[in-house]
Amino acid sequence: xxxxxADVQGALKNLIDPNTKKDFASGKSLKNIxxxxxxxxxxxxxxxxxxxxxGEIRAKIEAHLKAALPGSGKVSVNVxxxxxxxxxxxGVKLVPxxxxxxxxxxxxxxxxxxxxxxxxxxxxxxxxxxxxVLDADxxxxxQPTMLGISGHPETSGTNLVEPMTNHGLQAMSIxxxxxxxxTPMIWRGPMAIQALNQLLRQTHWDDLDYLIVDLPPGTGDIxxxxxxxxxxxxxxxxxxxxxxxxxxxxxxxxxxxxxxxKIIGIVENMxxxxxxxCGHEEHIFGSGGGEKMCADYNTELLGSLPLDIRIREQTxxxxxxxxxxxxxxxxxxxxxxxxxxxxxxxxxAQNHSTVFPxxxxxxx
Length: 364
Prior knowledge:
Elements: H1 5-12, E1 30-36, E2 39-46, H2 54-68, E3 75-81, E4 98-105, H3 113-126, E5 131-135, H4 143-146, E6 164-166, E7 169-173, H5 189-201, E8 208-214, H6 221-229, E9 234-239, H7 243-258, E10 263-268, E11 273-274, E12 281-282, H8 289-297, E13 301-304, H9 309-316, H10 321-324, H11 329-346
Parallel strand pairs: 2-3, 4-8, 4-9, 5-7, 5-8, 9-10, 10-13
Antiparallel strand pairs: 1-2, 6-7, 11-12
Helix pairs in contact: 3-11, 5-6
């Protein structure tokens, strides 16, 4: 029995990508259908990093096509992924070497924002993306400790500072540039904002798919200025379930909305407490707060994470959970959140500025 490209496309309209919840034919992922006799080959290009599930997706598509196309011979599916730049706020200068900037923010301190940021970055890197972390918390830089990085960055021949690296991430922090760990940054707001802009724009970021920016907690002058001056693809809000934290998280969300930054979603941290002795799970900070906030603001709960002593111990040791216990349940939760973040970013409007030629006016 013979079949055509339209038959292949029709078959894939009935197969849903488990990550995007969309079929493989309606979007732009289906490419290069080739039919030779009864053999079929095609390419699937995903817009999000998915190294851990590429084989699973390929097998699923091949089995589906074999069943949907009677008489088909060899079915070959090549699944790859490519992350592209997406739109940011209008009028904000882009950062060379960075495709997408994702801000991780919280309305208040103490909700695990930095821990969440570094584990999301590591999870994206584990899926095959090129990822960097910018520690934008001038007064309390924690990423050097969390990433287990010591020493000072070097300056390249272009007068840009080379990022520090560990666990497959490129990283920059004011903590790399100051002296001892107990040296306070006694700066007023304008100085801190200028320093952060320099860290962002004078670092030699090397072809990053995502730059995760660990913002300082709160919604003050520094946070507002950064949200206005950084070309942000989208923001993640980290909160805990209790009412006080949620009140502040709502303020952070509204701040990004006011400056035209899209909200990717909300992460509810310390959602449950897991006893290290007996494994009992309890909602000590309340439950359902993150879901209610998402419903109120028409955004998505990206995931919930437990209050677990292992997260603290692993992060303090310089090996966050995603690298310390990559196959554990907590790491799987971080990876699910990171994959959802990447899928949501892939659905956003693309930035096409790089495809247009630059027009230069010369005096003759």
